[in-house]
Design goal:
Number of helices: 18
Largest sheet: 5 strands, mixed
Number of strands: 20
Structural class: alpha/beta
CATH architecture of the largest domain: 3-Layer(aba) Sandwich
CATH class of the largest domain: Alpha Beta
Distance between the termini: 57 Å
Strand content: 5-15%
Strand order of the largest sheet: 2-1-5-3-4
Radius of gyration: 25 Å
Shape: globular
């Protein structure tokens, strides 16, 4: 690798050629503060917090965008720079509604931390930002532009990672604000509800719609039997909300916290991920046998489903009709579980803990009902909402001893939490069913990793089965466009709307840019999931004893009429824009 040498704060630094000053400074242990910068996504130098002095330059330069050069001399922490950054922060704060004590992002706000770091205790400029500017038309998100600092991180993620670009800067000068085209409400736009914008927002301008009060109400109602199901990825992310290292496996303490919150039963949605494998696996085998509507495309990501229904309607026939594991969980609880326990489904409240804000949208989709018109899932909350419930209840998460789910089985459904996991879990089962013999190796490593698109060919049933995994809707778009153009042919495709899959979902813990820019959250969280999988006793969905019992005692055979009625859904073209 070709390198350059430069001097930063009097110290010689060797950095890869093509590095920015920001990246070069990091190599010598200097963290230059930023607000707008996100690695590989947003390097526009808009916030001016990262300005540094470069010898020979006429003015201060933005370290996030300015290339480091051989022999360059840089200062990052002079008195004049500190004064400039303080002044910039004061100007930003003067256009910011500062109700920090009651703000959802209190203590996790990047702007608040910078103000503290630079000792800002008084703002010299008047502000008119005293009232909220709330837009909450969608099912999953609340936008408050009185907290927006125009960093454009949300704009960049929506455009470059997710390919929908439904938000951007409107107006000019002091009137500039982030909104949808023509200032329409979000529910009138082709937003796919992925929530990636909420995960990268440095302040409280964008947040998931909080549904925790609905959960508290259900828990306080003695007439209701409240059941909670936890998605596979939550166990390796919830610890971050309580200051634990990225990738910490907190499964046991998470279950203990849910028990203390008062849920009647605490279940692992890994099981219904296994159920998804069984139903989707049978569906795939039938299509392989008939070469009908290939490639089969997975349907576990509701943001992807919404994207397809608006942008890629010609692929709707290829999409698996299986409900997602969340929806299958609700269906199982209100059918099989209700019958087994002798409880009227009307008295059951199903709560899901999800990594994804699109799950809030999914529970309201048509054909997501288990019995008698009842919704499969009554309330969906994110990892962040769960952490707030735990804190509100006074539960000392780090002090808890581990407890177990009410139904215990280590299963392949666990790896659904990361990109490639749905594919790998399905292949473990499909290969054994078709080849009628145990796999010598259950790990399909070619579909692992955080690459945006992964491809592989596996020999199953004497034929080459071509598979692909895509995560992040920009990558999904690239993959589907290549199929449309006849450049690629596949038999089975896994799609995850969020880059890296559920471990990087829009409802996962917020991490500041100082972490996001220097640690691959996707990789560290995925590593924890695969470590758990490698040590599991059961690693194939069709060997899960609970799944076997569900089919034997209630659903009949996988893909059968009763299973299809409860566990499958339909799709249709959706209008991109709602117009008056």
């Amino acid at each position: 690798m070709e390198t350059i040498k430069l001097t930063i704060n009097g110290k010689e630094v060797e950095a890869p050629k093509g590095s920015t000053i920001l990246e070069a400074a990091r190599l010598t242990g200097i963290n230059i503060p930023t607000l707008c910068y996100l690695k590989r996504i947003n390097a526009i130098g808009a916030c001016r917090i990262c300005v540094v002095e470069v010898k020979g330059a006429r003015t201060n330069v933005a370290a996030c965008a300015y290339p480091a050069a051989e022999g360059m001399v840089v200062e990052t922490n002079t008195a004049s720079l500190i004064k400039a950054r303080r002044n910039t922060l004061e100007l930003i704060l003067s256009n910011h509604r500062m109700d920090c004590l009651t703000c959802l992002r209190n203590r996790s706000c990047e702007l608040q931390k910078l103000a503290a770091d630079f000792g800002i205790q008084h703002i010299r400029y008047d502000t008119d930002k005293t009232e909220p500017e709330i837009e909450d038309s969608s099912l999953h998100l609340v936008r408050d532009n009185s907290k927006c600092i125009l960093c454009r991180r949300c704009v960049a993620v929506c455009k470059y990672n997710q390919a929908v670009a439904v938000i951007g800067p409107n107006d000019r000068g002091y009137q500039t604000h982030i909104s949808c085209a023509f200032d329409r409400n979000l529910d009138e736009s082709p937003c796919v509800s992925c929530g990636q914008c909420t995960a990268v927002c440095p302040t409280a301008a964008l947040n998931e719609k909080d549904d925790t009060e609905k959960v508290w109400k259900a828990l306080g109602d003695p007439a209701k039997h409240v059941v909670v199901g936890v998605a596979p990825s939550i166990r390796v992310t919830i610890g971050e909300c309580f200051g634990e290292p990225v990738g910490t496996n907190a499964e046991g303490r998470m279950v203990a916290a849910l028990n203390r919150l008062g849920f009647d039963r605490v279940f692992d949605i890994n099981h219904t991920a296994d159920l998804t494998v069984m139903e989707e696996g049978v569906e795939f085998i039938k299509r392989l046998e008939t070469n009908d509507r290939l490639p089969l495309i997975t349907s576990c990501s509701p943001a992807w489903i919404r994207f397809a229904e608006m942008y890629y309607t010609d692929f709707i026939p290829n999409m698996s009709s299986c409900k997602s594991p969340q929806q299958m969980f609700g269906a199982v609880i209100k059918t099989f579980y209700a019958k087994e326990r002798g409880i009227d489904p009307k008295d059951i409240v199903t709560v899901s803990i999800m990594p994804c804000t699109a799950k809030k949208f999914e529970i309201h989709r048509e054909n997501e009902q288990a019995v008698d018109g009842l919704p499969d899932i009554d309330i969906a909350i994110t990892t962040r909402e769960l952490s707030r419930m735990i804190s509100r209840a006074g539960i000392m998460f780090g002090e808890l001893d581990g407890e177990q789910f009410d139904d215990i089985a280590s299963t392949a459904g666990l790896i659904f939490g990361t990109t490639g996991g749905v594919m790998e879990a399905a292949l473990r089962t499909v290969a054994e069913i078709v080849d009628k013999k145990p796999l010598e190796n259950v790990e399909f490593t070619e579909v692992r990793g955080v690459a945006g698109i992964k491809e592989a060919v596996y020999k199953i049933g004497g034929r080459d089965v071509r598979v692909a995994c895509a995560s992040g809707l920009t990558n999904v778009k690239r993959l589907l466009d290549s199929i449309r153009a006849g450049e690629k042919q596949y038999d089975f495709i896994e799609v995850m709307a969020c880059p890296g899959g559920c471990i990087n979902g829009g409802g996962q813990p917020v991490q500041p840019s100082s972490v996001r820019n220097n640690i691959d959250l996707r990789e560290e969280r995925a590593k924890a999931i695969y470590n758990m999988d490698s040590g599991a006793e059961l690693r194939k969905s069709h060997e899960n004893p609970l799944i076997k019992r569900m089919y034997d005692e209630y659903f009949g055979e996988p893909g059968g009429e009763k299973a299809h009625h409860a566990l499958h859904t339909t799709y249709k073209r959706q209008t991109k824009y709602k117009l008056d």
